[in-house]
Design a protein that fits this description.
heterodimer; A: about 350 residues; mainly alpha; two-stranded antiparallel sheet; B: about 45 residues; two-stranded antiparallel ribbon; elongated
Chain lengths: ~350, ~45
């Protein structure tokens, strides 16, 4: 009510500025919603039950990695190693969970390991690489861009070497144990005859946990404090270095979970698994209002960003738009989202 | 309400540290980017 009264008290020019600000700050959302409506008109099957379940599934698969990267962005950083960590973890998980008796087994003498053990191994791999990222960023005061660029290359090298182990000789890893694929891609609920895969529920659980960590724990509050002003956070008694390391470890764990899900979702894992996933995740975060200024971001924003991005790309595929052109559009979305983010920051100043 | 037509602002933290940029230029990038995206999508259909 007070907002409406305040608006009515504005003169003509101030009202114009108000609407201009509102339009420009939300222009990307307006554009994406308009594009989705236009795609639905041109291709009426776009928002069918099957297509919506597909969009939700693809969004759920990308959500953990986006939640991990969002933490790094809140610290005014980024994480370029995310996609390669997902790839390494996916290949490790797939190699340890190949079905017994599969002819092209990577380790023929190895029994299929328990799911929980492999899950813990994937989390540990992600967490250790995340620790390296965080340690180098915090202790050496390096920008995460350059640290994660180097770990991206290191992880990719390890991934290629891992694929040469045993009798695999660089081939894709497939023939996964049915208990593993069933755990990830099986379904307990259908919508309009289309089954919702289990990993959607896992993504939901991870999102709730991340929401709790971000909003209800001292660590979450410290993360936002360090992101908005590390000097002030330090003076206030926040352990800045440990907070940075912990954020990257948490991000690594998220990549580990994504890799564990992705291995079973894809079914056939190669060195290119996870490639460029970090770009989609960064784009989703920026669209969702996680600011490169630092200290600004919400879990719901990340979810909106991931779903919006997936909606638009599934829509473009529906319209049979060239894959190469989709890269151009993806780049433009990131550029516009960054310009809006910067503009919001400047206007606040 | 703040007048956003002032010429230049010096940005503060994060990736935008030390950047001096005009709001009007950013508006042009935002509007131009959206128009270009719309053109590319509908020209490719």
């Amino acid at each position: 009510m007070t907002g409406i009264k305040k608006y009515k008290g504005l003169d003509k020019r101030e009202k114009f500025l108000f609407w201009k600000e509102l339009f420009i700050n939300n222009s990307l959302y307006i554009f994406l919603v308009a594009a989705i409506v236009a795609i639905q008109i041109m291709s009426p099957n776009f928002l069918s039950a099957r297509s919506i379940v597909n969009i939700i599934s693809l969004s759920a698969a990308n959500l953990p990695i986006a939640l991990g990267i969002a933490g790094a962005i809140i610290l005014t950083g980024t994480d370029l190693s995310a996609g390669r960590i997902v790839g390494l973890v996916a290949c490790v998980a797939a190699s340890l969970l190949q079905a017994t008796g599969y002819p092209n087994k990577m380790f023929p003498d190895l029994e299929t390991m328990p799911l929980i053990l492999v899950f813990l191994i994937t989390i540990a791999i992600g967490g250790i690489i995340g620790f390296v990222n965080g340690f180098c960023t915090a202790k050496f005061n390096l920008h995460p861009f350059i640290v994660t660029l180097s770990t991206q290359l290191i992880v990719y090298g390890f991934l290629l070497m891992y694929l040469m182990l045993g009798s695999n000789n660089g081939q894709s890893i497939s023939g996964l144990d049915p208990s593993y694929t069933g755990f990830i891609t099986g379904s307990i609920l259908s919508v309009g005859g289309t089954p919702i895969p289990n990993f959607v529920w896992y993504a939901l659980i991870i999102t709730v946990i991340m929401w709790f960590i971000w909003n209800k724990t001292a660590f979450g509050k410290n993360m936002f404090a360090v992101g908005s002003n590390p000097e002030a956070a330090n003076v206030s008694g926040v352990n800045v270095k440990w907070t940075i390391i912990a954020v990257f470890i948490l991000a690594g764990v998220m990549y580990g979970i994504t890799g564990f899900i992705e291995a079973a979702r894809i079914g056939s894992n190669t060195a290119s698994t996870g490639q460029n996933y970090e770009l989609d995740a960064i784009a989703a975060c920026v669209i969702g209002g996680v600011s490169f200024v630092g200290g600004i971001g919400k879990i719901r924003g990340v979810i909106i960003g991931v779903v919006m991005l997936r909606l638009i790309f599934v829509g473009l595929t529906f319209l049979s738009i060239d894959q190469n052109m989709q890269y151009v559009i993806k780049g433009l979305i990131i550029l516009v989202a960054c310009a809006i983010d910067m503009r919001k920051y400047l206007v606040r100043k | 309400m703040k007048n956003n037509n002032q010429k230049h602002y010096n940005t503060g933290g994060g990736l935008y540290r030390g950047v001096t940029v005009s709001i009007k230029l950013l508006d042009a990038v935002i509007i131009g980017g959206l128009v270009l995206m719309a053109f590319l999508i509908f020209a490719s259909v």
